[in-house]
Structures are given as C-alpha cells and as structure tokens.
Amino acid sequence: MERKPSAVLMVALILWMFGVAGTVILPLFDQEINSATASGELRNYPEDSAEAKGREIYIQNGCQTCHTQFVRALPADTNQNLGPVSQGGDYKYDLPHLLGSNRTGPDLMWVGLKYNEDWHRQHLIDPQSTSPGSIMPSFDYLTNKELDDLVAYLMSLKPTEERLAEYKKEREEQNSMNDK
Amino acid sequence: MFTDEKWSSSKNWFIAAVIWIIIGMSMGLLTAAKQIWPDLLNNRWTTYGHIRSAHVMLVIYAWLSMAYVGSMFYMIPKLAKTKIYSEKLGNFSLVFYNIVILEGFFALLDGQTSVIEYGEFPLWVDVQLLIAIVIVAYNLFKTVGQRTEKMLYVSLWYFLGSLLWLPLTWIVGNFPAQWIPSGVQQGLMGWFLGHNAIGLWMTTVGVGQIYYLLPKLTGRPLYSHQLSMIGFWAIATFYVWNGPHHLMNGPIPSWISKAGVIPSIVLLIPVWAVLANFWGTMKGSWAQTRTNVPLRFTMAGTIFYLFACLQGPLQALPSVSSVIKFTHWTVGHAHMGPFGAFSFTSFAAIYYILPKIVGREMFSKKAMEAHFWFSTVGFLVFAFSLWIAGVVQGFAWIEGVPFLQTVLMMEPYVQGRAIGGTMMYVAQFFLAWNMYKTIKVAKQEKKQQALHQAVTA
C-alpha cells in the first residue's frame, strides 16, 4: 500500500462510509427522531403564515448564533427553568434545524410560554430597556411587518397543554422530594 | 491568461490566504467587540449573527483552506518528485475559489444562511465551492499520479485522504434541507460536516504539513514510519464517528450518542501516536526553537494540538459536557485547533516554503518573532478568558442564577477575550507585511541580477 495511492484512497473511502452509515444513515430508521410529537406538530407552520415568515426572519438575522432551542435533562437546564426536555420528534418539521450550539442568550425552545407580544416587540427594538445590561443587539432595523412575524414565531414556541401539565407535575414532585 | 510559472500556484494561494486571514479575523474581532458594545455597527448587513457566521466561514474555508492548498501545491510535487500537473489549472482554481468565497461572504452578510455550522453558505454557493474543491483535488491527484518517487511518504497519505474526504463530507453536511426527513436528522448530518471539516480536513492536512516540515526544519529523519501509519489509520477510522457528540444529552437516541462518544475517547490513540512521532523526531532539536521561528511555530502548534485533543475527549464525557456545553468554553476550544494548532503550522509552512519559491529568505526575522509572540500570547489570553468564563457560566446556570445576571458576570472575561483577540489580529499584519516585503525585494533582486548579468556579459 505504501506505493499505491489508489489503495490508500479506497480504504480511506471505505472507512469514511462506515462513519456515514453509523452516524447518518442508521438514524434515518429511528422512530424517535423521525415521527413528530404533538408539540412538534405545532411547529408545522402553514406556508406563508406569519410564524413561517417569522422563522425565516429569525434565521436571516442570525438569532441562532446566540440562542439554542435545545432543552436537556440536566441541572443546567432544569435549574434555569427552561421547560420540558426536548425530544427528537419536536424537531420533525424544524428545517433547517435551529438547535444551535451557543447560549450567549437563553434557550428559546419554549420561550412562547414566558412573555406576551408587547414584551417581545419592546425587547427586540430595545433589548436593554427590558433587560438592563443585555448584550443582545437591537433589531430596530426590521420593518413593522417583519417584527410582527418574528414575534408571532416566538409566541408559537410552546409545548402542548398536556406536555406542559405533565412537566409541571414532574417538577412539583421533584421539589417536594427535595424538600423532604 | 493564467500563468504557467513554476510554483506560482503555491505562492498565489498563500498570498490570497493571508489577505483572507486579515479579513476573516477582523470579522472575529468585530464579533468579540459586539459582545461588549452590542449596537456597534448594528444594521441589516453587519448585525452580530452575520458577522459571526462570516468569521467562522472565512477563517476556515478562506484563510486556512487556502493556506493548506498553497502548502499542498508545493509539498505534494516535492514528495512525488515531479512538478504540479497543471500550474495553469492551479491558478485558475484559485481565482474561481476566491470568487466563490466572495459570493459566500456577501450571501452571509445578506442574511442568506443554511444555518449548518461550518457549512453556513447557502446552497447555491455550496455547489460552486464543491466544484472548486474538486478541481483542486483533481490537479493534486494527477500530480501524485505522475510521480517518479514510488514510496508514498506519510504526508502524502494524509493529503490524499483529506482531498477525498473534504468534498464527500461537504456534500453530506450541505444536503438540501427540504430532502431531509427531520430536523434532528439534519442536525446529525450538519455535525457530521461540522466535526469532520475539522477532523478529516483541518486536522489531517495540518498533521500532513507537520510530517513534512519537521524533518526539513530539524534536518533529522522521521522518528518512526510505523507509528505514522498507525496514527493515520486510527484517525481515518475513528474521527469520522464523532459528529453526534455535538448533540450530546440532547434530542438524539442514546445509541447514537454512544456511537459518537466512544470514538471520541478512542481518538486519544491516534493523537498519542502522532504526537509521540513528532516529539520523537524533535529529540535533541528543541534548542533550535530559540532561533528557528518556523520550527517554533510548528512545535507550538503540536502543543496546542495536544491540548485540543485532551480537551476534546474530555468534553465528550457526558458529565463534563453537562457543565460546559453552550458556554464560552466551547468557543475557546473551537479556536484551539483552527488557530492554535493549524494556523500555526500553516504559518510555519509559509515561512518555510515562500523563501524556497522566491529564492530569498524572509525579509524580516524581527517581524517573524513579533508574529509568533503576538499570536501566542494573544491566543493564551483569549483562550484562558473563554475557558474560565465557560466554567463560571456553566456552574452559574446549574445554580439557577438568573440568566441576565450570568451575562453581566461574563463582562470581564468577554473583555479579556477581545484584548487577546486584538493581539492575535495585530500579529497577522506582521505576517502580511513580511510576505509583501519578501516577495517585492526578491523581485527587485532578480531584476538587478539580470541587469548585472547583462552588463558583465
């Protein structure tokens, strides 16, 4: 092999394909990530809806570079009260995905539960007015229409009532366990 | 239209690379500054998200990748004892590649992004970049094909593998979203690229560079051919499985998580094999790093590579990940390979190769020293700020400190990062100026020589 570049390339290709098979092809057959949860269905926005357009604006303005949408079953997330742990099926229609990798700002997976429209609008136009000392940039350059759509999208980021109730119950149980 | 001059493509790729390191790092510094002054240059084009994405894409695919191609256009023919298959095609691919990068840059500023990290250019740019990469790979494969040296030195293995893996990996990561059945599936495909752009391109070409440079710079033979083979095949086998650890503790089935975490830890084997080989080769030559700046850059690069590879598997442990994931730590870690390890080896490659091409040593030794010290000290300030920040931030989240308060806590570290980053940035002007001077003076000297010869003849 030390004299045959084609042999090196062949083996290199085969090893690469093993990796693709294991980490890219096999998951295609996994039910958990490929069928939508009820909360995932809520993110199947009709084309041209305000939410769908808002999602585009979210992407175009790079919100995903500072915000994840990705709640883990870990103290870092539960103690920040981020809401129900996210499941693969929540992202069935989330394309391109907005999982993110960096929390310069908080996770937004279920941020629709936290505030009302007015707060979001005010915060987007002047983040420091609602959150003194915030390093989120102002998005006052967006048009009124764009802001409306973006806020509609943010407000839509919620779990179903059942999922939320379940989550609240679990938390209460945990809290009472901790108290004892 | 495109020149056929010997080594011209190598030289021209290097020149373009260094122009892009200045542009790419200015985007990085602006990102850092925006975390201090959020409304600095904030508008539809240069809002934070656009600048951050442009920074990542430019330093990886413009600066580092062009420096790599420049190195390979010199090292591959040298190792194969032949000339480049086509210098003309090499120069053409350079112009094409740069046009595509410019398109990608403007697309990102325009808010067109495919979101996939390390693959953020939109699809219409991705396709063109793929073509450009394939043209480069074709030229270099053909060069190996016409070799007169039958034995393939280990650097060639790494270069061949990387030139095959990059385009394939690029396709997986940039696969059009509408053809992918779910968001998490796309996440896995995206991180396949995100991790392997690092593992099967950046690392492997970089390691190939070091294998080339060390024996040349020290004048000693490679410590062990055997060990270099073990290292190569172990990297090729295990790196490619690492993507899923980026979604660890997240919405992926646990079996995928394990398929990603275990190889991340096994990777310590090739890293050890590679580094043992480098440092074995260095035995008795360490004193030379006092005066030999390219060698010093190479060795500093290997040390940063070691740190990066110790951090990597550590971070892949679920318990460690649960503290530092999503924090500033990750940003610090993400700079270790691309800047600390492989930008350093690329600097060494430029300082070694450019004088051979233009036929004169680097114009200023002092500028090389300044380049080294500003880069190294700047990077250490930058990286330690981010690592400390990440740990503090991670534990603050766990303690349930309100998020906004954690943002305020980060202020001094974010400032430290910007100060370190400024030094890293300033360093590159020493490189650019030195390169410019070297090429210019070499040209003048050649002209004078020709004149002199004409007179004496």
Automatic annotation (TrEMBL), chain A:
One Pfam family linked to the record: FixO
PROSITE patterns assigned: CYTC (PS51007)
Keywords, sorted A to Z: Heme, Iron, Membrane, Metal-binding, Transmembrane, Transmembrane helix
Domain of life: Bacteria
Domain Cytochrome c intervals: 49-158
Regions crossing the membrane: 7-29
GO molecular function, one term: electron transfer activity
SUPFAM superfamilies per record: Cytochrome c (SSF46626)
Protein name per Swiss-Prot or TrEMBL: Cytochrome c domain-containing protein
Taxonomic lineage: Bacteria, Bacillati, Bacillota, Bacilli, Bacillales
UniProtKB/TrEMBL annotation, chain B:
GO CC terms of this entry: membrane
Organism the protein comes from: Mesobacillus subterraneus
Record flagged with keyword DNA repair: no
Gene3D superfamilies: Cytochrome c oxidase-like, subunit I domain (1.20.210.10)
Transmembrane segment boundaries: 12-33, 53-77, 89-109, 121-141, 153-172, 192-214, 221-241, 261-281, 293-314, 334-354, 374-398, 418-436
GO terms, biological process: aerobic respiration; electron transport coupled proton transport; respiratory electron transport chain
InterPro entries for the chain: Cyt_c_oxase-like_su1_dom, Cyt_c_oxase-like_su1_sf, Cyt_C_Oxase_1
Pfam (any one): COX1
Name of the protein described by the UniProt record: Cytochrome oxidase subunit I profile domain-containing protein
GO molecular function: cytochrome-c oxidase activity; heme binding
Transport keyword on record: yes
Cross-referenced PROSITE patterns: COX1
Domain Cytochrome oxidase subunit I profile, residue spans: 191-457
Lineage, top ranks: Bacteria, Bacillati, Bacillota, Bacilli, Bacillales
PANTHER family named among the record's database cross-references: CYTOCHROME C OXIDASE SUBUNIT 1, CYTOCHROME C OXIDASE SUBUNIT 1 HOMOLOG, BACTEROID
Keyword list, A-Z: Electron transport, Membrane, Respiratory chain, Transmembrane, Transmembrane helix, Transport
